[in-house]
Inverse folding.
């Protein structure tokens, strides 16, 4: 109805932010379809971030994503739809993953290899190289501290500005820069060491 | 500043995370330091590999699984009803308070009709209503099994009672308001009904 009113008033609903505000409002009033649409928009962001924070353990990442969306649903009434929704979601994702990392007894990782994740079709060799590189980077990420890892994932993989990363992680910009730079150096040195071993 | 101290600056430099002044300082150092140039090149490679994770594809079935789990759980959660109850209760309290404050005092010198609600024999005889009216009231207003706990007023019957008593017709009243005092089976609940010229 609100959507219709806006259209009638000549306002455009093209902007994703406006659409999101309407979706959140509808979800707040108990509209499950609206909530499912929000879920569809952000599932890739949440699952991908969780997977990189939790070390390529697919089952844990799925659990984390579920927890994030259930927290979102529980917190909908308190959520200010005009504030930055994505940042809030990242913050919840980081917190859920942090909690899981602290309490879980690590299960054997379900690797994201083979048929599970083929959404594009490169050549067989290229795919194998890509898969090896991915595993190498995941191994490198495992050498980072929890904070370095979170800062690096948000900045370099999610492409979030340093200032925003600081807000999400509840720390200062200087600290985030420090974590990012040390994480990049560690990754570079790890990759270098692994490459030399193979030669 | 030695090369080890430059490493972390270079790590920010390769991703354009430095201020202009810092960029100038790093560029100057790179011009003169071969090791740091190699280090920067290696960083660019490892950063490219890191960003390759962005292209890591996910099977749609993974998302479908998460979605169905979440929707399955939230569909069973009903929105809390307490806000509606709270609003309703608040409105009732406000209404009751307003009615209490504006209740008419028992008027002196005005014609009054007293109607009784509840079983006939247990209550005092009405002062001005006919016996037939009183029995009608008792018969029509006592609710099965609930009369003792919740007094009930049948407004149509009360209006009939007033008319039959020859007092309620607007023309008969000559613009004087009529006060109807309705007694219930609860001695603490007495209802006054001020009838205007329209009989309302």
């Amino acid at each position: 109805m609100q959507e219709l009113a806006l259209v009638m008033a000549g306002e455009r609903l093209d902007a994703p932010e406006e659409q999101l505000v309407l979706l959140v409002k509808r979800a707040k009033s108990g509209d499950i379809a609206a909530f499912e649409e929000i879920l569809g928009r952000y599932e890739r962001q949440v699952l991908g971030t969780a997977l990189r924070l939790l070390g390529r353990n697919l089952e844990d990442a799925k659990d984390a994503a579920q927890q994030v969306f259930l927290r979102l649903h529980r917190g909908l009434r308190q959520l200010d739809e005009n504030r930055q929704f994505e940042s809030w979601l990242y913050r919840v994702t980081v917190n859920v993953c942090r909690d899981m990392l602290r309490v879980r007894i690590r299960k054997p990782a379900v690797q994201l290899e083979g048929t599970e994740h083929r959404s594009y079709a490169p050549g067989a060799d290229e795919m194998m190289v890509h898969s090896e590189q991915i595993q190498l980077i995941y191994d490198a990420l495992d050498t980072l501290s929890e904070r370095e890892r979170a800062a690096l994932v948000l900045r370099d993989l999610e492409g979030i500005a340093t200032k925003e990363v600081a807000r999400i992680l509840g720390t200062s910009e200087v600290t985030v820069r420090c974590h990012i730079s040390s994480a990049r150096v560690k990754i570079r040195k790890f990759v270098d060491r692994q490459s030399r071993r193979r030669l | 500043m030695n090369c080890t101290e430059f490493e972390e600056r270079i790590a920010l430099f390769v991703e354009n995370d430095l201020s202009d002044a810092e960029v100038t300082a790093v560029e100057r150092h790179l011009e003169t330091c071969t090791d740091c140039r190699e280090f920067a090149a290696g960083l660019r490679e490892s950063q490219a590999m890191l960003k390759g994770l962005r292209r890591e594809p996910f099977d749609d079935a993974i998302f479908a699984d998460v979605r169905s789990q979440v929707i399955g759980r939230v569909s069973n959660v009903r929105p809390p009803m307490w806000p509606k109850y709270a609003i309703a209760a608040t409105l009732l309290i406000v209404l009751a308070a307003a009615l209490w404050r504006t209740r008419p005092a028992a008027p002196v010198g005005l014609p009054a009709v007293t109607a009784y609600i509840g079983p006939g024999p247990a209550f005092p005889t009405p002062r001005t209503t006919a016996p037939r009216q009183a029995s009608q009231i008792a018969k029509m207003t006592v609710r099965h099994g609930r009369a003792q706990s919740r007094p009930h007023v049948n407004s149509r019957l009360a209006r009939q009672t007033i008319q039959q008593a020859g007092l309620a017709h607007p023309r008969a009243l000559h613009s004087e308001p009529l006060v109807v005092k309705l007694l219930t089976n609860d001695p603490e609940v007495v209802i006054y009904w001020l009838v205007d010229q329209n009989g309302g």
Notes: Residues 128-132, 134-149, 168-173 of chain B have pLDDT under 50 and may be disordered. The interface with chain A takes residues 7-9, 11-12, 14-15, 17, 39, 42-43, 45-47, 49-63, 65-67, 69-71, 73-75, 77, 79 of chain B (CB under 8 Å). Chain B has two domains: 3-55, 107-195. The longest helix of chain B spans residues 82-101.
